[in-house]
Amino acid sequence: MKRDLVYKLLLFISIILILLFIVFVYIDYSKYDSLTFSAPFSAYVLIRLLEFVLPSIILLILALLFKRKR
């Protein structure tokens, strides 16, 4: 029972992080202006990948490990 709850919680947090990534990239895109910012937009996307998608992948792997041990 406890492993199942941990699995669902990790999966939920992983999905939330991916949704937050999409929202923040959209916000960055709407604010981005190539004339005023020195870095290309892909640099902003790379930063957001490191902030949201990488932890999401780690949590997803942990969730799958908890599910497998059931």
List the helices and strands and how they pair.
Layout: H1 2-31, H2 41-68
Helix pairs in contact: 1-2
Q: End-to-end span in angstroms?
A: 9 Å
Helix content: over 70%
DSSP E strands, number: 0
Number of helices: 2
The amount of beta strand, in percent, is under 5%
Assembly type of the chains comes to: single chain
The dominant shape is: elongated
- The stretches of 5 or more residues where confidence is low (pLDDT under 50) are none
Radius of gyration: 16 Å
SSE class: mainly alpha
| Count of separate structural domains | 1
Largest sheet report: none
The overall average pLDDT, rounded, is 90
The string of secondary-structure elements, in order, is HH
Description:
There is one protein chain. By secondary structure, this protein is an all-alpha fold. The chain has one domain. Helix content is 83%, strand content 0%. It has two helices and no strands. Helix 1 packs antiparallel against helix 2. The termini are close together.
